[in-house]
Amino acid sequence: MTTTTDSPRAVDVAGSDEIPERGRLVVEIGNTTLGIFRFRGELRAYENVCAHQGGPACQGRIVQRVREKLDASRRSQGLVFDEDSMHVVCPWHGFEYEVATGRHPGRPDYALRSFPVEESGGRIRVTV
Length: 128
Fold this sequence. Notes:
This protein has a single domain (about 10-125), classed as Rieske [2Fe-2S] iron-sulphur domain (Rieske Iron-sulfur Protein, 3-layer Sandwich), CATH 2.102.10.10. Helix content is about 0%, strand content about 50%. It has no helices and ten strands. It has strands at about 10-15, 25-30, 30-40, 40-45, 60-70, 75-90, 95-100, 115, 115-120, 125. The strands form three sheets. Strands 2-3-4-8 form a four-stranded antiparallel β-sheet, with no helix packed on it. InterPro entries: Rieske_2Fe-2S, Rieske_2Fe-2S_sf. GO terms for molecular function: 2 iron, 2 sulfur cluster binding; metal ion binding; monooxygenase activity; oxidoreductase activity, acting on paired donors, with incorporation or reduction of molecular oxygen. It comes from Pseudonocardia sediminis.
């Protein structure tokens, strides 16, 4: 029996202006659904499947990471939003992933499957 696999190919998915800073676009390429995010001017593409329980992770809310603010004595001063870390939250069970890495902040063994993404000539291409 012979099996064939498709070679990876770059697919034009959108114009650069379709994904603003801190924004996202969800696209289907064949049987694969991807979320493409822009954060700090960089694009990241992830399969829209939560590593926790298979939900549509890339379609969840995009939020700033919440951190605990500590004083010099390491006492809590409450919670603050971290402008330098954006997360996408799976709508099924609230499992979070850092947009820049695709990893869960507390369980780095849980991560979204990433795909190469490039931008040139005003177009965005993902290699699948």
